[in-house]
Design brief:
3 copies of one chain form a homotrimer.
Chain A (H helix, E strand, L loop, with lengths): L1 E11 L3 E4 L1 H11 L3 E8 L4 E7 L3 H14 L16 H10 L3 E7 L2 E2 L5 E7 L5 E11 L1
Antiparallel strand pairs in A: 1-8, 2-7, 3-5, 3-8, 4-7, 5-6
Amino acid sequence: MHVHHDQLEVRTRGKGLYEITDQIESKIDKHEVRNGTVTVFVQHTSCSVVIMENADPTARGDLEEFFDRLVPENANYFRHDSEGSDDMPSHIRMVLTHSSETIPIVGGKIQLGTWQGIFLFEHRRAPHRRKIFVTLIGE
Amino acid sequence: MHVHHDQLEVRTRGKGLYEITDQIESKIDKHEVRNGTVTVFVQHTSCSVVIMENADPTARGDLEEFFDRLVPENANYFRHDSEGSDDMPSHIRMVLTHSSETIPIVGGKIQLGTWQGIFLFEHRRAPHRRKIFVTLIGE
Amino acid sequence: MHVHHDQLEVRTRGKGLYEITDQIESKIDKHEVRNGTVTVFVQHTSCSVVIMENADPTARGDLEEFFDRLVPENANYFRHDSEGSDDMPSHIRMVLTHSSETIPIVGGKIQLGTWQGIFLFEHRRAPHRRKIFVTLIGE
C-alpha cells in the first residue's frame, strides 16, 4: 500500500462543467496503481468537483441553468460581494456540491459507471486557473 | 494495510430511500477489516448514496417531498428529457447529494452515529437495479 | 501505511459555521502523518462538515441566510417535527451538504487552498455537543 499525490491545472473560461476524467485516468496509469482509490480534491472555494452524466451536453446545460436559478446573483441579503455579483453565489454552489470525490480503482481502471464522468464545476464568470489535487491510495 | 473491493446490487421500486447499512456492515465482516474506512460509491448518475436519519420514516418522506419540490419535473428550460420528465431532475438531485460516502471502521465496527443510516436514494420512478461499489481500506 | 483514528468534540451555540481547521491540523501533528489523507466525519444527522471560505465572516453569514431561505422551517408538508420546527430542516440541510470531507496531507501539512477552512455546520438552534471522527490514512 502506498500513497501517491499529483496535481492538475484546469484553465476555465467561465461558468460551466469541464470534464477531467481523462486527466484523472492518466494519473492512475502514471503512478501504476492497480487496486485502491483515487480522491480528487479542488483547492478553491468558488468551484467544485462533481460526478455527472457525460454523454449528453444538454444535461450539463440544464444543470448549469438549475444552479443559476437556485442560487441567484444579487440576492438582496448578500453582503459578501467584494469580487462581484458572482462571488457569494460561487461559495454557495460549492457548498451545495462537492470539494472532493473518491472513486475505486480495480485492475488499474477507475470504476466509474457507464455514464459517469468527473467534472470541474466552475462557478465564476472570469477565466481561472484551477488547482486539483489527485491522491491515489493503493497497491 | 490492504484494499478490499466488493459490490452490492439494490433493486429499487421507484423514487425514495432504501437503507443499505446492514449490507455494508456484512461486507466489513466478510473482509475482516478491523481498522480503517469504508467508501460506498454508486455507479450511476440518477441515484445517490446519502447518510440520513434512520429511526423515523416520516423524516425520509419529508426529505423526498423536499427534493420533489426543489427539483421539479417539467421545468420549462429542461432540454435533456429523452428518458422522460424524471430524467433531468434525477441528475440534478444526484449532484445536490452524493455519489459516495466514506465512514470510519474501528474494532471491526462501522462508526455511524446513533441515528445515522446509509441509504441509496433512488431518483427515478421506474424500478432499477443499482450497482454499489464498496471499498474497504484498512488492516 | 497506517490508519489512525481520533475524535473531536465541538460545543455549538446554535445555527452557524464553527471552524475546526486548527483542531484537524493538531491531529495530523499528533499522529505524525507525513503523507496521506485525513477524513473528517460527523456522527450526527442534524449538522454537517463543510469546506468554506474562511477569510470573510460575511460570506459565512450569507451562506447561513441562504440555507435558512432554501430550507424553511414550518413547511406545511413536514410531518417529522417531534423535536421542533428546526428538526426536519436540519436533516435536509445535512443531506444537501456533507457528512464527511477528505483532504490530502503532504509533508505533514493539510493541502487546503489559501481560502479554504474546514467547518462544522450546525443546523439546530439549541446548543449541542458534536462528535467528529478524524481518520488519518498514510505514512
